[in-house]
Amino acid sequence: MSFNTFGHMFRMTTFGESHGPAIGCVVDGCPPGIALAPADIQVFLDKRRPGQSRFTTQRQEPDQVKILSGVFEDDKTGGPVTTGTPIMLLIDNVDQRSKDYAEIRDKFRPGHADYTYQAKYGVRDYRGGGRSSARETAARVAAGAVARKVIPQVRVRGALVQIGPHKIDRVNWDWAEVERNPFFCPDAKAAAKWEAYLDGVRKKGSSCGAIIEVTASGVPAGWGAPVYGKLDQDIAAAMMSINAVKGVEIGAGFAAAALSGEENADEIRMRHGKPDFASNHAGGILGGISSGQDIVVRFVVKPTSSILSIRKTVTAAGEDVDISTKGRHDPCVGIRAVPVGEAMLVLVLADHFLRHRGQVG
Questions:
Q1: What is the β-pairing status of strands 245-250 and 166-167?
Q2: How far apart are CA 277 and CA 292, in angstroms?
Q3: Dihedral pair phi/psi, residue 285, rounded to 5°
Q4: Does the N terminus or the C terminus of the chain have fewer Cβ atoms within 10 A?
Q5: pTM for this structure?
Q6: Strand runs (DSSP E) across 35-149, as ranges?
């Protein structure tokens, strides 16, 4: 299997399977001399960690990260700093229950990657989906924590803005609220309604989709490169690489189709000696290059494919059968996709920071 590496100058290669002994990643291209300890990474892994509420999978994984290479004790500070060599991060899997998948080892789950993996490789890891499992995203979050250290001037934050058909009210947006509820929701009233809705979904053995919004503040004008190295191009690819993502939009996104040219254009005036934009329909990117405004990206996550409800499918031998997927699954995988979306955005930004520095100094 190829294409396990993401990025250009700042690169992440992930490895491991959902039910294997461990997962992890190798981060290549990180500059030397940056303070980096496991605690710097763990804080973000804890946000993604499963089993923290009844609204996510009850698989109990501590997700404790180990740094196996790429750091060394600094003589001046006494703490570990990056050496400029590849950084290997390892996360042990400790709570696999492979027996939950024994009944479906020869059946293809509708909506899942089971069939396509079998069609492409002729073999697949049916235990939780192997590499197609969202378990792989823990490695992305770990790599993203390293990327944050490369561009500390940039603040990346994510929030869940819709579960199923239920949207937040943007008038109630409060970033502090994101840390106070199990949904990463910036609207306290919406979060309260989501509890009842998701309880109903979970009790029915079903699932629902979601929309996540991620923003980056502090990105200066100039990152990104035309024509085939556009910043928004790489951001879209990053978000589409996340499990179950089926759509990405930046700034006004698809809503821009309903705007007039006058409405969509972000007017500019000079303020305090620099350009000041009256709006941000462009999502902080113009011509593939950052404008200095906040970068705003949203992506949609489809409903979890592994559900208890009985669905029609086929077996690897070509037989028509019914399937019900047992085990521990997220009724809404979009909840834990919030820290994953943050990680993918900061990985792209760290990469473009180094590419920009390499081109223009």
A1: unpaired
A2: 10
A3: -140, 130
A4: C
A5: 0.94
A6: 65-69, 71-73, 80-82, 87-92
